[in-house]
Design goal:
about 325 residues; alpha+beta; Arc Repressor Mutant, subunit A; D-Maltodextrin-Binding Protein, domain 2; nine-stranded mixed sheet; three-stranded mixed sheet; 14 strands; LysR family transcriptional regulator; transcription regulation
Length: about 325
């Protein structure tokens, strides 16, 4: 049974469209249709119910899909294991990274990977918008927030809490907010991505034991504050730099702020409240991109991020 046919079947089931799956796998629609029919003939079952308007997976196809995913995953792990045994991590990785992580954290980590694997190279793209994997020719992206597209392969690296902070100079001049409503009197530096401006800050009061509880609403209250600012940028790194320079209060991930928090360039504010955490993911467009180099990068980033986060608690 051809593994390429299995890959096509999984992709078609995820997308619900043979033509779209074929485009993603660099196949013609005719070749994709023929491959699925070949697979159905080998199995002796109908995998999809086809009509002029829709494609629907059958009950037999759903059952086979589960085992097919497991088989492809095991095959990927086996390939990676053999490659690791041979000690060969090579090739080029086209990596897209958000602005703050890319400029301030990840560069020395990539140097470490490349120093230990001289046959490995990186092509780095920095920007906060999630790259179009196919148009931009990106192999893997490092981004906050779990991807909504279920066809992508995503590895969670860390859970990252978000911090409200300001520089010592700003606090000395304007004071520190104590409760959510106080933020209305401050210059809250704003981040914008596409047409969305992140000016709604939702804060949750900590419980009496001063520990975070995300489930018990009886011991916490939420406040959603619409903040304002004279500064707005679509680059998260710039927002952080404004905060360090004393231009206002920022809401940033603890990971992005880690070096500045440790150095005292910014100070965490409002200890009686917290903002719901986010998560950091390494995202690939499909299973074919999950190479030994990507798995090596995943493991190193997971280790580095969690170690760095531990230093700022």
């Amino acid at each position: 049974m051809n593994t390429a046919d299995l890959e096509l079947f999984v992709r078609t089931a995820d997308i619900g469209n043979i033509t779209a799956a074929a485009v993603q796998l660099d196949m013609s629609p005719a070749a994709a249709s023929a491959a699925l029919k070949r697979l159905e003939k080998q199995l002796g079952i109908e995998l999809f119910i086809r009509s002029t308007r829709q494609l629907r997976i059958t009950a037999e196809g759903e059952r086979f899909l589960l085992h097919c995913r497991q088989a492809l995953s095991s095959l990927d792990d086996a390939k990676a294991s053999i490659t690791e045994m041979k000690g060969e991590i090579a090739g080029e990785v086209r990596l897209s990274v958000s602005s703050d992580l890319g400029r301030n954290l990840i560069l020395p980590w990539l140097d470490e990977v490349m120093d230990n694997n001289p046959k490995l190279s990186f092509q780095l793209s920095i920007g906060d918008s999630l790259a179009d994997f196919y148009m931009d020719k990106v192999d893997v992206a490092l981004r906050y927030g779990q991807p909504e597209d279920s066809t992508m392969v995503a590895f969670k690296l860390a859970t990252v809490d978000r911090v409200i902070c300001a520089s010592p100079d700003y606090i000395a001049t304007y004071g520190a907010p104590k409760k959510p409503e106080d933020l209305l009197q401050h210059n809250c530096l704003l981040y914008q991505l596409g047409s969305k401006t992140y000016n709604q800050w939702e804060l949750v009061s900590k419980n009496s034991g001063n520990t975070i509880s995300n489930t018990d609403d009886s011991i916490k209250s939420r406040s959603k504050i619409k903040v304002s600012s004279n500064r707005m940028c679509n680059d998260g790194d710039i927002v952080k730099r404004w905060a360090v320079a004393g231009k206002g209060i920022a809401l940033k991930s603890r990971l992005d702020l880690s070096h500045d928090l440790n150095a005292g360039r910014v100070i965490e504010l409002m200890p009686g409240y917290y903002v719901e955490p986010t998560s950091l993911w390494l995202i690939c467009p499909n299973r074919k991109q999950v190479t030994p180099a990507i798995l090596l990068l995943r493991d190193l980033l997971r280790e580095k991020c969690q170690a760095l986060l531990a230093t700022t608690k």
